[in-house]
Design goal:
The protein is α+β, with helices and mostly antiparallel strands. The chain has helices at 8-29, 44-77, 93-122, 262-291; strands spanning 135-136, 152-161, 164-169, 179-182, 184-188, 193-199, 204-206, 215-217, 223-227, 237-241, 254-260. It has 2 domains: 3-77 and 97-122; 135-291, Immunoglobulin-like, CATH 2.60.40.420. The chain is built from 4 helices and 11 strands, in the order H-H-H-E-E-E-E-E-E-E-E-E-E-E-H. The strands form 3 sheets. Strands 1, 2, 3, 4, 6 and 9 form a 6-stranded mixed sheet that branches. Helix 1 (8-29) runs antiparallel to helix 2 (44-77). The longest helix has 34 residues, at 44-77. The protein is elongated. The structure holds copper (II) ion (CU). Copper (II) ion (CU) binds at residues 160, 204, 242, 244, 246, 250, 253.
């Protein structure tokens, strides 16, 4: 049925629905859209989650306003009034089959689109040539780990505990002390970072909204996710916090991810290595003094 032949009331209802959907889309697309849609901009998986969410949201809004608009229009148009008896209609097989088939089709299309998008959300891309030197990784078959096509990434272990996060930078050499840090994770831009997430006590959840999905941190189990911060975001800090109620200090269990250029990150890693070696030496010296019964200097 062409739009022109529709009654004025119905046309107005459709116009109002279109305006509402467009206004919601405009708001959702603005920089401060995090109130209605998942945050975006820090990593390609976060962007894909956002665009999939928007497809579902818009489809939902269109269906909602079409159904509610028709309902309100029908209530108004066919209401009982003086001198006019309301029509009694008992079902319409063709209409009912059409509505059921239409709804099923929408669900099927949404499922197909979701599965098509899932790849971009779950599979990490390769690091860029300008990224930090990455090492060969092998996917752990017992987990949900996905690795980039070229098999290379920077792996950081995230260990949640009551009440904080510890980040361990695996250097691939068991004979040396791995660099580690608490609360503040430093990561290079243009580099695919794989996160191996676990907990040393109760259940927690890792969530930096701008860097992708939320992942449970469970004792005795490794959950994997990834992020890749674009090169122009070097110097940016992404904030997040534990997303699983884990005890009385849960609200203070925050985490920050600081994106550094690959060269700044290399420098940070070296500085941290030196600091760790120095504090290890200092502790060993104190231990010697204690063992020898001498006062600590
Ligand atoms: Cu927690």
């Amino acid at each position: 049925m062409p739009l022109k032949t529709l009654p004025t009331g119905l046309r107005k209802a459709f116009a109002a629905a279109a305006v509402t959907v467009s206004a919601t889309l405009l708001l959702a697309d603005s920089a401060s859209a995090s109130w209605i849609a998942p945050e975006t901009g820090g990593s390609p998986n976060a962007d894909s989650i956002h665009s999939l969410y928007m497809i579902l949201l818009v489809t939902g809004l269109i269906v909602f306003f079409a159904v509610e608009g028709l309902l309100v229009y029908t209530l108004w148009k066919f209401k009982a009034s003086r001198g006019h008896e309301a029509k009694q209609i008992h079902g319409d097989t063709r209409l009912e089959i059409g509505l059921t088939a239409g709804s099923a089709l929408i669900v099927i299309i949404l499922a197909i689109v979701s599965f098509m998008k899932l790849g971009d959300i779950r599979n990490p891309p390769n690091s860029d040539a300008a990224g930090f030197p990455t090492t060969k990784v092998v996917a752990d078959p017992g987990t949900n780990q996905k690795i980039p096509k070229d098999g290379k990434a920077l792996t950081i272990k995230v260990t949640a505990f009551q009440y904080g996060f510890r980040f361990t930078y695996d250097d691939g050499d068991p004979s040396t002390q791995d660099v580690y840090a608490y609360r503040d994770l430093y990561a290079p831009t243009n580099t695919t970072v794989l996160l191996s997430i676990t907990s040393q006590d109760v259940n927690h959840a890792w969530w930096i909204p701008k860097l992708g999905g939320k992942f449970d941190a469970v004792n005795g189990f490794n959950n994997w996710t990834w992020f890749k911060v674009p090169g122009d975001l070097a110097g940016t800090t992404f904030r997040g916090q534990c997303a699983e109620l884990c005890g009385r200090n849960h609200a203070n269990m925050t985490a920050s991810v600081h994106a550094l250029s690959p060269s700044d990150f290399a420098k940070w890693l070296e500085d941290k290595k030196t600091q760790l070696a120095e504090s290890k030496d200092a502790a060993a010296k104190q231990r010697q003094l204690i063992d020898a019964g001498k006062p600590l200097g």
